[in-house]
Design goal:
The chain contains 4 helices and 4 strands. With 116 residues, it is α/β, with parallel strands linked by helices. The strands form 2 sheets. Strands 1-2 form a two-stranded parallel sheet. The chain is globular and about 45 Å long. 11% of the residues are buried.
Length: 116
């Protein structure tokens, strides 16, 4: 079993020490980092059979404050992150004839959140 994280090295180490789950650091919005990360996980732990996509980011803003309107980091990040790991592990899952993908969303996807 493996976990990924984006930023807090100390908390990731504490999590790994407490659970025995190895943690890997990469930006899940970058396909290149996901592909390299999946390869590293497979080299360390074996084939990836299950992916749980639960990374998220809330950087919503009113339209006048967003970087080009509607294209802020949150808008670019959310849809892309769902596919990055899947694409990186897909060939192996197909070759083995097995794989599971679990996508976990946020309430902000339904209700939104206004950041001022």
């Amino acid at each position: 079993m493996a976990a990924t994280y984006a930023g807090n090295d100390e908390r990731a180490k504490a999590f790994s020490d407490r659970t025995g789950v190895k943690s890997y650091k990469w930006d899940v919005s970058s396909f290149d980092e996901c592909a390299a990360g999946i390869k590293q996980v497979e080299a360390d732990l074996g084939p990836v059979d299950v992916i749980v996509n639960n990374a998220g980011i809330t950087r919503d803003a009113t339209i006048e404050k967003d970087e080009p309107p509607g294209l802020g980091r949150g808008a670019r990040y959310q849809p892309r992150r769902l596919l990055q790991h899947v694409q990186a592990a897909w060939d192996g899952m197909l070759a083995r004839g097995f794989g599971r993908i679990v996508n976990i969303g946020s309430i902000n996807g339904q209700a939104g959140q206004l950041a001022r």
